[in-house]
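[job 0412] stage=complex_fold ligand=glyoxylic acid status=START
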Amino acid sequence: MTFLILSYPERVETFRRIFARDLPEVRFASDLAEVDPAEVRYLMAWTFPEDLATRFGNLELIFSTGAGIDQVVGLDLPPRAQLVRMVEEGLTAMVRDYVVMAVLALHRDLPAYLDQQRQQVWKTRDFVWADQRRVGILGLGELGRATAAALRPFGFPLAGWSRSPRQIDGVTCHHGPEGLRKMLAETDILICLLPLTDETRGILNGGLFAQLPQGAGLVQAGRGDHLDQEALLAALDSGQLSAAVIDVTVPEPLPAGHPLWSHPKVVLTPHIAGHSRPESAAAATVANIRRHLQGQRVTGLVDRSRGY
Ligand code: GLV
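[job 0412] stage=complex_fold status=DONE, emitting structure tokens
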């Protein structure tokens, strides 16, 4: 029984050390050439070989090294294989911190002040107190919940939207299409932490921006395909949106000269909001394989009919 990881050397070495210590009964491999494909029961990667189904017929669990699973959900999988998202504290903390940074930047008008700085303009802008800045989170999974908990002490009125009903202390929870309309009408800073599925592709579009109060801000830490980039640029130019912090684009990398690079109301980062941390990711993976070996439900199991 083999665990095969395809990743960069630092992550592989950390996994190798932790697997040798905590899961010695499972053979560890990190090189496609060194394994007998029929022996591979567990495979971890970010991008996967196209011929998964035919090459690794005995796979049981396919792990993504990241929170997202959209890169593999459409592939042909071996008959018994199940997909597992990365749920681990390092990744959650990193995304949470990024979104808190972005919300505070929008709350304190940082994109506008950066633009003033570039133009050497010393000018005070209107200030809004945190308890009057309503923050809405699209996606209340692991990342959305951790972000809500971190934003709470600042005093922002918090709301969240998810596919199915949720209850979270201190967060007004909405679900379904009617819930989305209701939340958008009362959201000054909108955060996208949704998984990418057929239902959420293109969700950040002109119609959605029009439902936000004029001058709202956007934090996009989901997937590039959630966002209609042309609609974002139009909403920024019309003033419907005041600013946006964008971590994911289509395509990635964003080509030189794309208007998002230089838009004065956009802060752009190159898909760095979150990465799993090798130590805690390895520990979480060992715990998950143990659960699986004991016939228990693993954490982060993907429901392929939902797409996440
Ligand atoms: C990064 O985008 C991830 O899915 O972890």
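The pocket of glyoxylic acid is lined by residues 66-68, 91, 274 (CB under 6 Å).
[job 0412] exit 0
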